[in-house]
# Entry
Amino acid sequence: MATRSVCQVFQRRFASAAASLRASPAEIRSQRNAIFSREQARQRALYPRIEKIEVSMHGPGLDGTLLIMNKGMSTPLSCARHLTEYHVKNSTLALVDGEPWPLHQPLTQSCSLTLLTFKDNDPTLVNQAYWRSCAALLGQVMETAFKDEYTVELLSTPEVPVISGAFCCDVVLDPQLDSWTPSEESLRSLTRGAQKLIHQDQAWEPLEVVPSVALEVFSHSRCKQEEVEQKASQSPKGTVMLYRCGDHVLLSGGPLVARTGLCSQYEVTALHNLGQGSWGLHRRVQGLSLPLQLQAHHTVWRKLRQRAEKLVDAPVPEAVAAAPEVTNPPDSTQPPTSQ
# Structure
């Protein structure tokens, strides 16, 4: 018994020492930002001289329009600024030589360019990018919602179609929060955090990097490092795509829309327990949103919200699927948020 007590004391001391050595969430965000900025500057320096490229525009009223832009510097958004205010405000994504392309990603060769909006005849690609962006925004909110003494690990974001009724992101919260059940006020607090980012109209800056850079960015997260390795192995070029929104750097499996301000109605609707997994208690946070150009009456929104509260049918990691679901106690508590 005495030996067990001594072991417990040492375990507590080692755990306390590890916690004191662990970087704070603010320090981690700062480091990720610094690495992102360094790599962004390095890539821009690859084009020391201004070289011109030809961009052939396509779309309603644009066929035959030819723009002369700067290689490695000009982006699809730069091209939109040479057209009309409508194209600047409503463009969400681009097609470059037929491939989806973020509006803020530089063009590196002469190409054909189509600007996409939510009101196109076929908005499939835009809707997919929008849903993915809403999930990215939700992850950013979750990462910064809690006090610094609580860790938040963002897991890989499930790719779910718009018809699923809700976008989602999977997270593991600090073990101290395993028994926490979010109240309606907690969800409203998270919603306010998202709306603040939307109001700031921050850009999602894309940066295509080799795996070694991404591994350095996510050096504090073994979970993200595994995701980097997986995505790199699936990429034809062996690269991965990072995005930065404000001070938040994320890994994305597909293109995001241009900016947070394209979101309009946005609400965090639910947080579901998925069970114990490789990294702890896995949870799925869900939300609902409509873009600025598409508004819904409050009665329609209420019905959509009710649907968005139900657990999204998305693939669950095997380690989680095999584990029994953890049932939270019935009493809800207020979240230990920093807001």
The two ends are 44 Å apart (CA to CA).
